[in-house]
Amino acid sequence: MLRGLYTAASGMYASQRKTEMLSNNMGNAQTPGYKADHAYSRAFPEMLLDRIDSSGMTRNQRVGSLHTGVYVQEIIPRFIQGDLRQTDRTTDLALSDRGMGNVLFSIEQDGQVKYTRNGRFTVDSSGYLTTESGYYVLDENSNRILLNSDQFQVDGEGRIIENGAQVARLRLAVSENPETLLKEGDGMYRTENGELLPLAANQTYEVSQGFIEGSNVDLTRSMTDMLTAYRAFEANQKVLQAYDKSLDKAVNEIGRLNG
């Protein structure tokens, strides 16, 4: 019976983690470049039960298998491109890459190179192109981009032009397996070993100025998944309550009769 308690409790915990993940997705539905997280659940290994006689010896009589619950094995972002929204701001940039979502801007954050799909940039007081959080946008040589003003042009290949002359080119990186990137705050990602991602030289992409990429959160599906997770939590909770009542009866009623 105690195994059943553990099984129900694991189901409740897995449902809770899914609910938290979905709440975070829905809260970031309007965040530019946000990639929705997806949870992947897995069952614990099954246990085989054998019958044991009064002497404590195991008989060759197989009772059957016992499920031991589920757990959320991993939560990873889904790299599919979101819709582009026109803003007409010269510092807003969006990436289009055949819907794959694996071409990313390179950002300098706390001395490390990070990556993002959020192209809502600005020019700081020193003239550097930065994210809204103040992190530097990098050029193809991994240097910070210094501009004279926010009145610049960016072509489809990421070249930044001021007064008719090219002053820099965005460092656009590509990840062949973006699911392996580690997710951080402010829409940032990093590689596990800190190595630089290669330039997206051989990729088909386009930079659109005056646009931002919206999140790829499907609110309708997220709400449906949220209700499913709630129902799964409640079902496991009722199982847990049923086990609790059975244990209460065994202790307070059966134990009294035996005494």
UniProtKB/TrEMBL annotation:
<dbReference type="InterPro" id="IPR020013">
    <property type="entry name" value="Flagellar_FlgE/F/G"/>
</dbReference>
<dbReference type="Pfam" id="PF00460">
    <property type="entry name" value="Flg_bb_rod"/>
</dbReference>
<keyword id="KW-0969">Cilium</keyword>
<dbReference type="Pfam" id="PF22692">
    <property type="entry name" value="LlgE_F_G_D1"/>
</dbReference>
<dbReference type="InterPro" id="IPR010930">
    <property type="entry name" value="Flg_bb/hook_C_dom"/>
</dbReference>
<feature type="domain" description="Flagellar hook protein FlgE/F/G-like D1">
    <location>
        <begin position="104"/>
        <end position="160"/>
    </location>
</feature>
<dbReference type="InterPro" id="IPR053967">
    <property type="entry name" value="LlgE_F_G-like_D1"/>
</dbReference>
<protein>
    <submittedName>
        <fullName>Flagellar basal-body rod protein FlgG</fullName>
    </submittedName>
</protein>
<feature type="domain" description="Flagellar basal body rod protein N-terminal">
    <location>
        <begin position="5"/>
        <end position="35"/>
    </location>
</feature>
<keyword id="KW-0975">Bacterial flagellum</keyword>
<dbReference type="InterPro" id="IPR001444">
    <property type="entry name" value="Flag_bb_rod_N"/>
</dbReference>
<comment type="similarity">
    <text>Belongs to the flagella basal body rod proteins family.</text>
</comment>
<keyword id="KW-0966">Cell projection</keyword>
<keyword id="KW-0282">Flagellum</keyword>
<dbReference type="Pfam" id="PF06429">
    <property type="entry name" value="Flg_bbr_C"/>
</dbReference>
<feature type="domain" description="Flagellar basal-body/hook protein C-terminal">
    <location>
        <begin position="209"/>
        <end position="252"/>
    </location>
</feature>
<dbReference type="InterPro" id="IPR037925">
    <property type="entry name" value="FlgE/F/G-like"/>
</dbReference>
